[in-house]
């Protein structure tokens, strides 16, 4: 390792994140404006921040549901579609060897999405369906990582399908808010973090991932999340409807 003014307990994790060459350039030589390493370091920093944000982004939503014991204003179909997209995204990126900082938030968001989906089924009196759903999701996810069950070409096709799937997962929620004119138990923290996270992910994808499918998916996800964020702002102080749009009504699903 090159002699450095930065203590080793700080330099070592930094080098692990951005690479030894860029650590030498940016830290040891203090060449902070070197274009390649600057872009690379910014991408890694944003990627790590997005992954860390993904660890908590849905927790406010979980707490709101647990506190109110209500799933009013939240679309079950949106969450199921999002869980499927999460699983495919994780498998595709992992099996292609992309850096964890370019997709890691999908792991933590997926876990939280599954928890929210189970709560939605529980609070709408469909606990048995929740057990079947959980088992099906486990088998589906396992299959994606098993090359003998899902080959590379099939996985690429599935990942391509996640692009409309991600958009489809947002459409029911966007429509629910539009019809209700009320955001219900939807978490503003989650919505805005999703929007800013996908916008930042565009940059990290351009810098680190040479994959047009991944880029297209992030572009469309940013647009869809931007619409949700705009709705959240527009209906921020809207009054709650009288039991009209609770998702425990069988008509909603």
TrEMBL record:
Stored Pfam families: PQ-loop (PF04193)
An annotated GO cellular component: membrane
Transmembrane segments: 71-94, 151-167, 188-207, 213-236
NADP as UniProt keyword: no
Compartments (UniProt record): Membrane
Keywords recorded for this protein, A-Z: Membrane, Repeat, Transmembrane, Transmembrane helix, Transport
Topology within the bilayer: Multi-pass membrane protein
Entry-linked PANTHER family: MANNOSE-P-DOLICHOL UTILIZATION DEFECT 1 LEC35 -RELATED (PTHR12226), MANNOSE-P-DOLICHOL UTILIZATION DEFECT 1 PROTEIN (PTHR12226:SF2)
Family statement drawn from the similarity comment of this UniProt entry: Belongs to the MPDU1 (TC 2.A.43.3) family.
The name this protein goes by in its record: Mannose-P-dolichol utilization defect 1 protein homolog
Species: Coemansia asiatica
């Amino acid at each position: 390792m090159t002699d450095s003014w930065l203590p080793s307990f700080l330099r070592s994790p930094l080098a692990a994140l951005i690479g030894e060459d860029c650590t030498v350039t940016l830290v040891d030589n203090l060449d902070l404006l070197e274009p390649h390493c600057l872009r690379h370091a910014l991408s890694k920093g944003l990627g790590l921040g997005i992954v860390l944000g993904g660890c908590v982004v849905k927790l406010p939503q979980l707490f709101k549901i647990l506190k109110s014991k209500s799933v009013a204003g939240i679309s079950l179909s949106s969450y199921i579609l999002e869980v499927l997209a999460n699983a495919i995204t994780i498998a595709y990126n992992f099996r292609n060897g992309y850096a964890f900082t370019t997709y890691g938030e999908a792991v933590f968001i997926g876990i939280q999405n599954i928890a929210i989906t189970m709560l939605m089924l529980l609070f709408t009196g469909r606990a048995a369906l929740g057990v079947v759903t959980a088992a099906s999701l486990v088998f589906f996810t396992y299959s994606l990582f098993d090359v003998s069950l899902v080959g590379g070409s099939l996985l690429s096709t599935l990942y391509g399908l996640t692009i409309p799937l991600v958009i489809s997962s947002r459409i029911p929620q966007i429509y629910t808010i539009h019809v209700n004119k009320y955001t219900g138990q939807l978490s503003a923290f989650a919505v805005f973090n999703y929007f800013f996270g996908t916008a930042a992910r565009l940059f990290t994808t351009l810098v680190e991932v040479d994959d047009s499918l991944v880029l297209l998916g992030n572009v469309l996800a940013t647009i869809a999340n931007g619409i949700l964020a705009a709705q959240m702002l527009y209906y921020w102080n809207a009054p709650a409807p009288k039991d009209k749009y609770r998702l425990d009504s069988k008509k909603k699903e």
